[in-house]
């Protein structure tokens, strides 16, 4: 299996990817462990997190063979380059930037830019994106995902932004290949209290493992 097909499996098999933003640096590795325990194997570290590149590097080494680790909130090519240097397997962005896609693909990594319109979806795909991320998805709802797939069914869609246990199944039923979940999975109180088993329980609500 190629490195990319393994990463694709980590992202798509559980159908839920964790978006880890600004989680306490001293707890983030335990949080990732708890997520993997709950069946989530796509681990996105947003670059606005404390020591994001250090976390990517550490998580890549520690969870090799168990999870795919990538970067989120990647806003330009320079940031993509730095994330890939740190070991990122995939590059998520909230926006669509041609150079970011090009740099990611030049390094042979998985590119998932953010889009919000059918035109942006097709543009992203033509620029080489592997999948697109509809963000913020809860604003347009599952019906958007269903409708755009009429003409644009060749483009795999991950949805993020406002995804929770009550709406994620609607998006999957509408045809999204996976959901990205941040706030509703990385419960701040549980993390502050060191209740990592509760993070595992939350993860299981998405993966059903
Ligand atoms: O910046 C990126 O690359 C992102 O992936 C943005 C995320 O999709 C959201 O930050 C997750 O949003 P919530 O699940 O509502 O917390």
From TrEMBL:
Pfam families per the UniProt record, alphabetical: Aldolase (PF01081)
Protein name in UniProt: 2-dehydro-3-deoxyphosphogluconate aldolase/(4S)-4-hydroxy-2-oxoglutarate aldolase
Keywords: Carbohydrate metabolism, Lyase
InterPro entries found in the cross-reference section: Aldlse_KDPG_KHG (IPR000887), Aldolase_TIM (IPR013785)
GO molecular function: (4S)-4-hydroxy-2-oxoglutarate aldolase activity; 2-dehydro-3-deoxy-phosphogluconate aldolase activity
EC number from the UniProt entry: 4.1.2.14, 4.1.3.42
Organism field: Evansella vedderi
Enzyme class: lyase
Signal peptide span: none
Family: Belongs to the KHG/KDPG aldolase family.
Pathways involved: Carbohydrate acid metabolism
Keyword check for Lyase: yes
Record bears the keyword Iron: no
Assembly and interaction partners: Homotrimer.
